[in-house]
Design brief:
This protein is an alpha+beta fold. It is built from 13 helices and 42 strands. The protein folds into five domains: 52-182, Jelly Rolls (Sandwich), CATH 2.60.120.260; 187-383, no CATH class; 396-524, Jelly Rolls (Sandwich); 566-680, no CATH class; 701-747. Strand 31, helix 10 and strand 32 (575-580) form a beta-alpha-beta unit. Helix 1 runs parallel beside helix 7 (322-332) and helix 5 crosses helix 6 (297-317).
Length: 747
């Protein structure tokens, strides 16, 4: 027993000694761990570098661009943040060349008029891939100008008639520009807009929204799509959501903080509390990678609660980290602070700049983001009551007033000039009917006169051989209704015949100008008889209505409203918004767009029941009857009411409108993921009517022909010339006959 007590006494002494030596060892790592948390957070307050990768495919170049013949060039403008220095910008050019016809082939790459690369391949074919660093200087115009030149000479002289069809250079759509920029360099709303990627992420507070927030989201999204962006809508994560943490990296110093510890294991994790949401925010998780946010009260409350919870856990682990936590909340997650009424402001989320739009400012914000006012938003906070396009007055608008400056082209063989205009620029009740284009061209080195061709949205509407004497000339073309879209592109193509004076000269460029007094002429809008004429009606004042249930599933329904509103020509700054609790709604006093809400007393040519669609003609004939359909939608032009409108119905989950589309001819369309699958004219109205197309007066009777002023103005000079030449020939023949007779008499 005595020995036992002695042993216990010895163990107690050893334990006491260990307590004096081991405990400090255990405390030291804890203090080091706590200091590391503060250091980690302090390092996180450094300026964030945002990286971007812009491919040609994202810019709409979906197929390889071929440069062939003896020489060709292509100008490509890649958007970058305006006025912001780029960090490590790199051009990754991907292409291939063919050289089947031999000769001397050369291609060059230049950026912003600075030559970067020149190659003269000698193989029969191969890759033209290369990666080149470019100048990171700020571009005030917001574009990197890439120019690709190709030259192929197979003859002995420049003008030898050798046109090599087997020598060409192809630019692949995978060509891209990769760059970074400092988040702090984006100082105002205008710069933030120019920094938006091709695919914009729109953040909302949740999958269930109130009317004001839903209204703001579809307006902002439609304005973005009208500007050529694609929109991805996300919601703030909430407790109970399951997320994938494989892409997250938790610093070792934070792994002991409970909120971060639960996210450090990788794989799929269910969010357990608000602190974990805050941890995701500090780790720059994809759930918080937003470009524009509908900054309603619910968003500010959720972000504040998440930041409060994670801040409490961090400070509990390391009191010295409180200063870094305050900086992160104030400067790197300012979206967690309430946004004032009618405010459009520049905020931050996970250190990234975010354009925050208060719900009651969305209507004006849609106008602010138009090309007219966008560059005026040189502020971090705007109290925005209005930002609208000036209403069109009279019956014409000059192209110079549509945002495109007067343009001069130096043309060797071909030059292109383009501008665009929205249907909403017209005065109320007006639609474009004619384009009066004024151009002037300098004389060239050849007697062959240049040709100007005019197209709208890809439709060739007119062409003219120019006098090319340096004086203004006018080309007037009618604009048929079927060519019109919500946003219309006018393209003028100038073609010259180059000359080189039998190889003694190199062909030179001669100037051509599209003059700013060119104008779009408007007329009273005709009665809507299909999708094309309905789009013109919806471009003015309109009403958009959705079922109340759509607000409870905002992430699924918002893309549909944005996509269809864009295709239908809805002006997001001029439309009213309604939420309907019933299956039907009265027809409003303006053109309308209804989603799964039937207009009262409307025509019943289309019926959707479950997965079954039936379509009848105006005479009651059954045109289509099919069941088993899913993930499609049906759009119908409602033309028999006091106001025309578009009735959009979903079948099953409805079409997933991931890509922009446009309505064509007809008044009923079945729509799928790729856009319009089938369009038909169920009402029996004439399709592709020659609206505004001039009639050919040469057709018809001889009396109508000879009494036409156009005939005498255009044909009489040729007829007179022919008559003079014919008379001269007759006189020569008669003189010859007279001489022979006189000779015969003398003989």
């Amino acid at each position: 027993m005595k020995n036992t007590k002695t042993a216990l006494s010895r163990n107690a002494v050893i334990a006491t000694l260990l307590a004096g030596t081991v405990a400090p060892v255990l405390l030291v790592p804890q203090e080091s761990h706590a200091g590391a948390i503060a250091d980690t957070l302090a390092a996180g307050t450094k300026d964030r570098v945002i990286t971007r990768k812009v491919t040609l495919e994202e810019l709409g170049i979906g197929t390889p661009v071929a440069l062939g013949s003896t020489g060709a060039e292509r100008d490509i403008y890649i958007p970058v943040p305006a006025g912001v220095e780029l960090i490590d910008p790199t051009l990754n050019f991907e292409g291939r060349y063919l050289r089947a016809d031999g000769g001397q082939t050369t291609y060059t790459l230049s950026v912003d008029d600075r030559m970067l690369l020149a190659r003269s391949p000698t193989d029969d074919g191969g890759a033209a891939d290369t990666s080149i660093g470019i100048d990171g200087a700020a571009r005030d115009n917001g574009f990197v100008h890439l120019k690709v030149n190709w030259s192929s000479a197979t003859g002995q002289y420049y003008c030898d008639d050798a046109r090599p069809i087997g020598n060409m250079l192809e630019i692949e759509p995978d060509t891209y520009l990769e760059y970074g920029y400092a988040a702090s360099a984006v100082k105002d709303i205008s710069m933030a807009w120019s920094a938006l990627p091709t695919e914009v992420t729109l953040l909302v507070s949740g999958s269930r929204l109130d009317k004001n927030s839903y209204d703001a989201a579809w307006r902002i999204g439609t304005a973005l799509q009208r500007d050529g962006k694609t929109v991805r809508t996300i919601a703030l994560p909430k407790v109970g959501d399951r997320i994938d943490t494989a892409a997250l990296t938790v610093p070792p110093s934070l792994a002991g903080v409970p909120a971060f510890k639960s996210l450090a294991g990788g794989g799929e994790v269910q969010i357990a509390n608000e602190a974990e949401i805050g941890a995701l925010m500090l780790l720059d998780a994809p759930q918080f990678s937003a470009d524009i946010a509908v900054a309603d009260g619910a968003m500010a409350e959720q972000l504040k609660a998440a930041l409060d919870a994670v801040s409490a856990e961090i400070v509990a682990a390391d009191g010295a980290a409180s200063a870094a936590v305050a900086t992160i909340r104030q400067d790197f997650n300012a979206l967690g602070q309430p946004v004032g009424s009618q405010t459009v402001g520049l905020r931050t989320l996970s250190g990234r700049p975010v354009i925050a739009v208060a719900p009651d400012a969305a209507n004006a914000a849609a106008g602010l983001f138009d090309t007219l006012w966008r560059q005026s938003a040189v502020s971090g906070d705007l109290t925005l009551a209005a930002a609208a396009m000036p209403p069109g007055e009279g019956d014409a608008i000059a192209l110079g007033a549509l945002g495109k400056a007067p343009s001069r082209l130096d043309v060797v063989a071909r030059g292109d000039w383009s501008t665009q205009f929205d249907l909403g620029t017209a005065a109320p009740g007006k639609v474009p009917s004619r384009l009066d284009l004024n151009v002037s061209a300098a004389p060239g080195a050849t007697a062959t006169l240049p040709v100007a061709s005019v197209s709208i949205n890809g439709y060739l509407l007119g062409a003219k051989q120019l006098k090319a004497d340096g004086t203004p000339e006018q080309i007037s073309v009618a604009i048929p209704a079927y060519t019109l879209l919500p946003r219309n592109v006018i393209n003028v193509e100038i073609q010259r015949q180059p000359a080189s004076d039998q190889c003694r000269e190199v062909p030179q460029a001669y100037p051509v100008a599209v003059l700013p007094d060119s104008r779009v002429v408007f007329k009273d809008a005709p009665a809507a008889d299909g999708f094309t004429t309905l789009v013109a009606k919806l471009a003015g004042d309109s009403e958009v209505a959705v079922p109340a249930a759509w607000l409870d599933d905002a992430l699924e329904t918002l893309p549909t409203v944005m996509g269809v509103a864009d295709a239908a020509g809805i002006a997001p700054a001029r439309a009213e918004f309604a939420v309907v609790d019933t299956a039907t709604a009265p027809v409003p006093d303006k053109p309308f767009l209804f989603f799964d809400v039937a207009p009262e007393k409307g025509a019943d040519r289309v019926s959707v029941t479950g997965d079954k669609i039936t379509i009848d003609s105006a005479r009651g004939e059954r045109l289509f009857d099919a069941a088993g359909l899913s993930d499609v939608s049906v759009a119908e032009a409602v033309l028999d009411q006091s106001q025309p409108g578009l009735y959009y119905r979903t079948v099953g989950a409805g079409a997933d409108l991931g890509k922009p589309f446009s309505f064509g001819q007809g008044d009923v369309a079945i729509i799928g993921e790729s856009g319009v699958l089938t369009a038909l004219n169920a009402s029996g109205n004439t399709v592709y009517a020659a609206s505004g197309a001039p009639l050919d007066e040469s057709n018809g009777s001889t009396l109508r022909l000879i009494t036409s002023p156009k005939f005498w103005l255009e044909q009489a000079p040729w007829a007179l010339t022919t008559l003079i030449i014919g008379g001269f020939i007759v006189l020569v023949l008669l003189a010859g006959i007279a001489r022979r007779r006189n000779r015969d008499k003398r003989d």
